[in-house]
Amino acid sequence: MSTEHIRNGFLAFIVCILMIIFLFLIFDQRNNSSKSAPNDPQVNEAINQARTLQKQGNLDEALIIFEKHALQGYPGAMFHTAKSYSRGWGVKPDLEKARHYYLLAIQYSYSYRGENAYELGRLFQRSLGPDCNTVAVEWFYKSLGWRFVKASLQLGIHYEKGLGVDQNINKAIDYYQIASAAGHEQAAIKYARLLMKGRYGVTPDPDKAYALIELAIVSLNRKVKNGSSTAAKQLGRLYRDGELIEKDPQKAHKWLLQSAQMGNTGGMHDFARMVLMDAQQPEKQTEAVAWLRKAAEQGHGGAITAIGRFHLEEKYTLKQEEAVYWFKKGVLAKHGGSMEELARLYAAGLLVEENQGEAIKLAEQGSLLGHLGCERLLKKLLKSRGSI
Predict the structure, then answer these.
(1) Nearest-angstrom CA–CA distance, 276 and 335
(2) Percent of the chain surpassing pLDDT 70
(3) Nearest to 82 by CA among 106, 52, 111, 48
(4) Is the separation of the CB atoms in 286 and 276 below 8 Å?
């Protein structure tokens, strides 16, 4: 293994370990002490007005208000500022700034503390380093302890896949059941998938699986009527995949389009990809690519990588030389697909100056995120260099 490879891996490991130590010094399991949140009715009203602006689509105006009061020490404003930077609402996505504000806010006892811990867990799921999944699990436990029940869904995923914990299907099922009972349909869907397929030694129970899916669909329909773009996306995926219910492309198209129109970047990505699989007419292809580009501009990693690949392949009249821009954007968004594609370009000297060291670095970053394509590419690059 090369010295550079060892150094990069060691630095990633040290960064994550230092963060773990920092977090546990502040939030020891045995000491959940916290600061009292400042309370100013005028500031509270300003934050509420900013949230209204956000719902109306005035994302940049909302962020200005949030960040102003975040800098004044109000944890609610810190939370909404962090969420804006995390999602790219009114600003270029910046996960480091998001983490900074979340870590400031979590020190206070305030109404969003449980969700704050959940969002920190989600950020660490996307972070590089061998122990970041372990840190994510700790945040999800804290989130659940602060009564944010959605964290049980993520704990179920970690225990099902053995991410940051020893794989334990019984614990995964327990957490999926907690989340399902609280109305989180994704947990019911994941539990139903285990029952339907009899995965990991689970005794198959198709009848129970169908019952879970039927309840989830009813709940998702209700949430769409109440304005949930995520629920529309989940419905679209169920009908698109046909894994747990009968495949229905028309319904999938309807729900994914509705999710996209409601502003969900995942819905935009999924709708565009579904249209592009079948569309032969240039106008439909143009419309789909526009949705994909919109999702990419708002920071959706899968959309960014897809747009980059279309440029690389010169599909839909897109220019190849712009592929590098999109892949670099995807790397910043921590998307393994972009890391793999950009690594391949550096290794081949295509569109960029050949740089084997940079190729290995990118493939290594993607591998730390669990991206299989990056893992395979890293082995190939190290072998060709004689490092393994």
Answers:
(1) 21
(2) 90
(3) 106
(4) no
Category of 88 on φ-ψ map: left (φ > 0), alpha (ψ -120 to 50) or beta = left
Round to whole Å and give the CA distance between 198 and 202: 5
- Relative to beta strand 108-109, strand 35-36 is parallel
- Check residue 274 and give its pLDDT: 95
Q: Write out the two tokens for 207.
A: 């009848």
Residue 260 has a pLDDT of 97
**HSE-CB for 256 with a 13 A CA cutoff:** 25
Q: Which residue has the tokens 């968004």?
A: 333
pLDDT at residue 176 in the model:
96
Residue whose token pair is 């060291």: 357
So what's the pLDDT on residue 21?
41
111 to 30, 114, 116, 182: CA distances (angstroms): 21, 8, 9, 19
Closest to 291 (Cα-Cα) out of 311, 278, 274, 309: 274
Using CA atoms in the order 350, 354, 357, 358, what is the torsion angle rounded to 10 degrees?
-50
Cα 132 to its chain centre, rounded Å, is 14
Confidence (pLDDT) at 217: 96
Q: Do domains 149-226 and 299-388 have the same CATH topology?
A: yes
Residues of the chain with pLDDT under 70: 1-33, 387-388
Residue spans of the domains in the chain: they are 1-147, 149-226, 246-297, 299-388
DSSP state of 109: E
Q: What per-residue confidence (pLDDT) applies to 26? A: 45
CB 156 within 8 A of CB 187: yes
**Could you give the CA distance from residue 71 to residue 222 in angstroms, rounded to a whole number?**
38
- Token code pair at residue 172: 């995964």
The answer as to CATH 1.10.287 being correct for domain 149-226 is: no
CA-to-CA distance for 22 and 123, rounded, in angstroms? Answer: 16
- CATH fold for the domain made of 299-388: 1.25.40
The CATH number that domain 1-147 falls under is 1.25.40.10
Record the tokens describing residue 124, joined without a space: 């660490």
Residue 172 neighbours by CB under 8 Å, 6+ apart: 156, 157, 159, 160, 194
Task: Write down the pTM of the prediction.
Answer: 0.78
Tell me how far CA of residue 237 lies from CA of 217, 245, 270, 271, 302, in angstroms: 12, 10, 8, 10, 15
* pLDDT in the model for residue 364: 94
Q: What is the pLDDT of residue 301?
A: 93
Q: Please state, in angstroms and as integers, the Cα–Cα distance from residue 186 to each residue in 15, 226, 354, following that order.
A: 32, 18, 43
